[in-house]
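FAQ: What does a ligand-bound record look like?

Like this one, built around FE2/S2 (inorganic) cluster:
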Amino acid sequence: MKHCDNFVVSEKKFLNSTFFKLKLKAKENLPLIKAGQFVEVQVNSDSKVLLRRPISINDVDSQTNEISLIIQTVGQGTKELAKINEGEEINLVYPLGNGFNIEGENPLLVGGGVGIAPLLYLAKNFHAKGIKPKVLLGFRSQEQMIDLKEYEKYADVYISTQDGSVGSKGLVTENEIFTQSYDTIYTCGPTPMMRAISDYSLKNNIKCYASLENKMACGIGACLCCVQNTTEGHKCTCTEGPVFNVKDIIW
Ligand SMILES: Cc1cc2nc3c(=O)[nH]c(=O)nc-3n(C[C@H](O)[C@H](O)[C@H](O)COP(=O)(O)OP(=O)(O)OC[C@H]3O[C@@H](n4cnc5c(N)ncnc54)[C@H](O)[C@@H]3O)c2cc1C
Ligand code: FES
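The answer part, i.e. the structure of the complex:
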């Protein structure tokens, strides 16, 4: 069931020059939320931004009734969101999308840029099942990185940067972690990265799920602006995704 509720900003933290994290406290008990699901955030009603913005759920704390979001400022909507202060309220429609199924005993999670956001809660879910996943995170440079302590609580973390300022130099697909074997790969990030990981997994016969970030408007299957071409026809990324088995995606 979808909810439309006001949350209170309990914490706001800048993680680097363009990423910030919001901890949002619900007024009621949170419903069950799957890793990979997202929220549609209402941008300040005084601004000219009418459409809500889709943002992945980064973490859920059902003890404190808080969810976390990591947001990258890219345009008007996210710049407006960056102005919100602790103690203020924000309206969310949630939880949206299908989310990740927790499958496999030996998973690899690969995120690029702000696509690392949903992988924290996914790693936490694996950890709760007694599995410590490997997580590979890709950034353009050290300047784009965030503090990884939260990820290290639940996973073995590996880093790639394009300029080699931290971790392995080059694309995530060039990281030596790919010399090891996995039974399932989960990925979220820029389309060329997810496509390369999809090609790798199909070639090596590894089950792989990608969380797509197609542009969205309504977030509930009404406007069809988020359709993705798949082997089973066009699918709404907001309701039938954002997570797809890569064997079904026509990129
Ligand atoms: C399911 C889903 C989960 C997402 N999770 C996160 C998240 O956890 N954190 C986060 O920061 N962002 C996330 N995004 C992307 C985020 O929704 C967009 O960056 C945001 O809507 C841009 O709004 P804006 O008004 O700031 O920018 P706009 O003015 O709308 O656009 C500014 C620039 O961003 C690009 N852009 C807009 N929408 C997207 C998009 N969906 N994907 C890629 N580029 C886009 C535009 O092409 C343009 O170049 C997610 C998107 C989806 C669909
Ligand atoms: S965003 Fe409107 S149908 Fe998906």
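Follow-up question: can I read anything off the structure? Yes, for example: The chain is about 15% helix and 35% strand.
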